[in-house]
Specification:
The chain has 19 helices and no strands. It has about 350 residues and is an all-alpha fold. Among the domains are: about 60 residues, Alpha Horseshoe (Serine Threonine Protein Phosphatase 5, Tetratricopeptide repeat), CATH 1.25.40.10; about 160 residues, no CATH class. The radius of gyration is 26 Å and the shape is elongated.
């Protein structure tokens, strides 16, 4: 009897100890908390311990590789992550983490090989196209970089990163159209980040660039029918710009006329979510506020603040709507052909 009681006590104690041991998910959450706090060594310690009992757990391995990467221990990070591409359960994040590590050690050849394999497995991943393009850009392979960003826009039209990079790329070329199109889509997909402010400056300067030459079609890809339609309507406003300059107010007036003409002439041929959104704002009486939001802070911050105070009801209506709506680009609205 005593032996049975002793055995039962040992079993109970073992079960109690096991119950106190955290499972993989709780360990992973503890590690993520350490990562958020910037305590990477503790995150690494916790994850390594967890992997002793879960040697093949991909989520734990990804977190460990990422923690090593953040701790700038690229040797151990690569040691953990280099096998990710061969795993059948490798996901997009696996390739992203390995890409970060290759970037950290400037191993571009292996990175390029890895991204090609990743995109073969995930051919519709906008984030992989975006990051592959970034890597190619660091190699100064600008032509291939923009090809990746364009492909990312085509297959995954709601990933903001490709628009961000493509808008910057086109702004520094002779092109006057696509930096404006992609830049404005970007600020609607990613409306309140540091990158948003950067692209708003590019949009304002891009419109100045558009109207600098009286012949706005000069050196542009007018064989592309979407580009030709855009320039056809914009050039009709050139005389207005000449007398008033490029300001949030003049751009609002020009773009109002542009949207009205677009829906009269081109909307059936080129359905386009951005211009549908412009039309929606026009009908709501908040298009001026939207243009102030896009261009005002870049043009003149004090003037923008003065405008919002003088038009407080309109601006508050727009601001509430902008923050509470989800801007989505439908598949099939891709009109860039010069890749």
């Amino acid at each position: 009897m005593k032996h049975l009681l002793f055995a039962a006590a040992l079993l109970f104690a073992a079960q109690a100890i096991q119950a106190q041991e955290p499972d993989a998910k709780s360990i992973q959450e503890n590690a993520k908390n350490y990562i958020r706090q910037g305590d990477y060594p503790n995150a690494i310690l916790v994850l390594n311990r967890a992997l002793q009992n879960n040697t093949d757990n991909l989520d734990l391995q990804k977190d460990l590789a990422f923690a090593y990467y953040l701790n700038r221990d690229y040797v151990h990070a690569l040691e953990v992550a280099k096998g990710f591409p061969e795993r059948k359960d490798a996901d997009i994040q696996s390739f992203q983490i390995l890409g970060l590590i290759y970037k950290g050690i400037e191993e571009r050849k292996e990175a390029e090989k890895m991204y090609r394999a990743a995109l073969k497995k995930f051919p519709s991943s906008g984030v992989l196209y975006s990051e592959y393009g970034e890597m190619l850009w660091t190699k100064k392979d600008y032509n291939d970089a923009i090809k990746q960003w364009e492909k990312g826009i085509e297959v995954d039209p709601n990933h903001s990163g490709n628009y961000y990079h493509a808008a910057k790329h086109y702004f520094f070329t002779n092109d006057k159209v696509w930096s404006l199109i992609y830049g404005e889509i970007f600020v609607n997909l990613e409306s309140y980040s540091k990158r948003t402010a950067e692209i708003k400056n590019i949009l304002l300067d891009g419109y100045k660039k558009l109207f600098t030459d009286a012949n706005i079609e000069k050196n542009q890809d007018t064989k592309n029918e979407f580009v030709k339609a855009f320039l056809d309507l914009m050039k009709q406003q050139s005389s207005f710009i000449a007398g008033n300059g490029v300001t949030p107010e003049t751009l609002s007036a020009i773009r109002t006329k542009f949207v009205l003409d677009w829906f009269a002439k081109y909307a059936n041929k080129f359905p386009f979510r951005l211009y549908e959104y412009h039309q929606q704002l026009l009908k709501a009486g908040t298009f001026d506020a939207y243009n102030q939001w896009v261009f005002g802070t870049a043009a003149n911050l004090p003037a923008y603040e003065t405008w919002t105070k003088a038009h407080q009801e309109e601006y508050n209506k727009f601001d509430y709507f902008q923050r509470n709506r989800v801007f989505r680009v439908p598949a099939g609205q891709y009109y860039q052909t010069a890749k």
